Amino acid sequence: MTDMRFESLTPLLAPRSVAVIGASDDPTRIGGRPIAAMLAKGFAGRIFPVNPKRERIQGLAAWPRVADLPEVPDVAVVAVPAAQALGVVEELGRHGVKGAIVFSAGFAEVDEAGAAAQSKMVEIARSYGMRLLGPNCLGLFNARVGFYPTFSSSFETGWPIAGPIGIASQSGAYGTHLFVVARNRGLGTPICVTTGNEGDVTIGDVIGWLAEDPQTEVIAAYAEGIRKADNLLAALSIAKAARKPVVFMKVGRSALGRTAARSHTASIAGDDAVTEAVLSEYGVVRAQTTEEMLDIAYAATRRIYPARNTLGVITVSGGAGVLISDAAEAVGLPMPPMPEQTQARLRTLLPFAAPANPVDCTGQAFNDLSLVGRFAEAVVAEGGYSSILAFFSQTGGAASIAPRLRAQLAGVRARFPDRLYVLSVLAPPELVRAYEEDGFLVFEDPSRAVRAIHAIGRFGAAFARGERAAPPAVPSVRLPPTTPSEPEAKRILAEAGIAVVPERLVSSPDEAVEAAEALGWPVVLKIASPDVLHKTEHGLVLLNLTSADAVRSGYMTLWQRARATNPGARIEGVVVATQITDGIECLLGVHRDPVFGPIAAFGLGGIFVEVLRDVVLHPCPFGEDVAHEIIGRTRAASVLRGARGGKPADVKALASMLARLSAFAIAAGPRLRAIDLNPVFVMPEGKGAFAADAVIEVGNENGDRL
Q1: Residue 106 and residue 702: Cα distance in Å, rounded?
Q2: How many CA atoms lie within 13 A of 112 on its CB side?
Q3: How far apart are CA 148 and CA 168, in angstroms?
């Protein structure tokens, strides 16, 4: 990679020398554990303990102050109370240290005074060009270079295993918990970085560094909230381009969880549906549990990512076949049937077999293990599946069977090495390792295997996706000082190329009649007011007006209702609009997420948006190709395509409008709070799409409501 955006973290994560400020001679204390671990695991660089009260610490020469060190270390561990931490960071910066790992707690996670002190610490670090991990962090470890700047006690039960998985976690305790569970499963996670309060270095920065690290192939991440979303998205983009899967546990879905996240690391949990939409766009797979996260990371270590994932199943148990089929359907993993001619041939080999898919070769196949090989080869070669799951249960772990079974399966894999092969067997650890050395993933639980296989396919689809089309170009957008009325909102949108229903703003009953006759019957009347954004609930929209008398009467009714229901509202007049009767109602919208910025929404409109909740979210901006994908992911898509003999709607015009709206949202800048186009009438194919109602909410420069 030529653009190493996150290379500034290298002195923090893979240094050549380290100072420990607040160093302790006791290897069980916070200031002593990093030194003890680095000595035990042979850190290749120099270690400089700093403590004014001791001349030697854990057998190393100690120094009273940073300024007294014989050379400038790449990084320093700050293990002092919060009251001293700012002074230490200042001293490190003056001395030219490039990175600081701050264990000290009592900052933004505590109160406003702590937040102010944290901001000052970060300001000091930045003034010296120094990167800062923490404060309130557990540190990190990089076993590849014997670097252990952490006070975790997890190494008392074992050291990290070599391997391709990197861990990035806001939470220190959870990050090391993940490492220990992975280590106990035999998974190699030689790097684990915990970011704590993220005063400077964020989870996105760490993911970015791991994505650029040539030895890291899989990234497991945990976060309670997202800071510096731009850095995270840049990191995910680098990971995706490098075909490095990111499996992400983003917590804080519940109200209680979001509160806990704020108190824990002072993070912003954000809206979970938005987080899901953004991460999905970058090919990230989210995990709900530790078990699922490690299952997916384990499966990803094979580095086989099918772009069009299908599952072929071989089983010796009909019940297990049903279980696997249910699990595959639940996650949306296709299991197409075997070709009919292949099924017929397999039945001649074993009449009791059920060779559709799952392919049940029954326990009879173990009387002649060559049958297992022939069935497996048929599934792989003729079924054409990208992923293969074989359920052999305890039979696959039997000493009398396993060697011959391994030989049959290894032969198939050797002939078709590009598939993802997974076994569900109950076997002793040494036999599991043997199967893994043969190139197979091994799971005890076939349902967990299915979920991991599905995740690998999601990575494959994301990696295979080509370049996205550019968002449409829109003219520069000038928002008014405050939230505009509906007519003004439509005028602004129309200038950006977003089609609206024909209408006129009038100020008298006679003008209303004249407008209705020009537009054509029937018409709709609506109050125009920047202070009444949701008119229907106030009775300020009248439909199906078909005569001059109805329009005059309706005009007066709207004025009376507006004065009664919204006495202080500014009234600009009445809108007379063409009433559309043969379009499909859809919702198009944008809202500004505090973390990720403008997020587009699409779904069926009118009453359906509340009843069906069939809405897809996507970060802005995007082109028409993505807009078509968004529309296609809703249940509304079948209606728009012409379900049950209906006429196809103008989806092309709808996609164009959605893409243009996403570009408009970016061009409008940070003062745009939200856009609501509901309903948008999608006409029959070739006849366009038109916004019938439009709301643009405007805030101040911070996006706050005015």
Answers
A1: 28
A2: 0
A3: 15
Model pLDDT, residue 705: 64
Over residues 450-471, the pLDDT tens digits come to: 999 999 999 999 999 988 999 9
Which residue from 160, 422, 210, 203 is spatially nearest to 295, judged by alpha carbons?
A: 422
Q: Residue 185 in contact with residue 294, Cβ under 8 Å?
A: yes
C-alpha distances out from residue 156 to 28, 159, 166, Å: 10, 8, 21
What percentage of the chain has pLDDT greater than the value 70?
95
The model's pLDDT over 238-249, given as tens digits with 9 standing for 90+, comes to 999 999 999 999
Residues 155-208: tens digit of each pLDDT: 999 999 999 999 999 999 999 999 999 999 999 999 999 999 999 999 999 999
Q: Are 105 and 136 in contact (CB under 8 A)?
A: yes
**Positive or negative: CA dihedral 475, 478, 480, 483:** positive
Q: What is the pTM of this model?
A: 0.91
Per-residue pLDDT reduced to its tens digit, 299-321:
999 999 999 999 999 999 999 99
Q: How many CA atoms lie within 13 A of 19 on its CB side?
A: 32
Give dist(CA 592, CA 263) in Å, integer: 24
* DSSP state for residue 692 in the 8-state scheme: S
At 312, which amino acid appears?
Answer: G
Q: What's the Cα-to-Cα distance from 43 to each of 15, 141, 154, 674, rounded to whole Å?
A: 10, 11, 18, 53
* pLDDT greater than 70 at residue 592: yes
Short-list 591, 676, 593, 661, CA closest to 626: 661
- Are the C-beta atoms of 43 and 145 separated by less than 8 Å? yes
Backbone angles phi, psi at 505, to 5 degrees: -95, 125
Structure tokens at 609: 């948006």
Domains and CATH numbers, the chain: 7-300 (3.40.50.720), 311-464 (3.40.50.261), 502-578 (3.30.1490.20), 584-698 (3.30.470.20)
Q: pLDDT band at residue 638, thresholds of 50, 70 and 90?
A: confident
Neighbour tally for 299: CB within 10 Å: 27
- Please write down the long-range contacts of 347-356, taking CB distance under 8 Å and 24 or more positions apart: 349/374, 349/375, 350/375, 354/318, 354/321
Query: Contact 443/453 with Cβ under 8 angstroms?
Result: no
Which of helix, strand or coil describes residue 119?
A: helix
